Amino acid sequence: MYTWHKIENITVAALQENIMKEFLVADKRIGLLKREGNIYAFTALCPHAGGNLCEGWLDKRGRIVCPVHNYHFDPATGRNTTGEGYKLFTYPIEIKENEIFVGLLSS
Fold it and tell me: Coil, strand or helix: which one is 63?
């Protein structure tokens, strides 16, 4: 079902808490977020207008805020929490020996 890809040039220990970082994985722009000991992977572009979510910020509840129109997204589920109806695509993560792998759907 998934093809697992190692995220290059970053480890779990090196990923800063509450800071979103963008990585290119198999030609996809993937955002990573480490928050409260969990790591989340999501498409780095907002599903509404394509804003770079990694240039945004986190709100008080840890939701990703798009820098273009301030839409908020739950990093665990991708659910739009401000009511506009968009969904952020999220990816499964596996950790192996401090390395981060993201699962992309096999085609």
Answer: coil
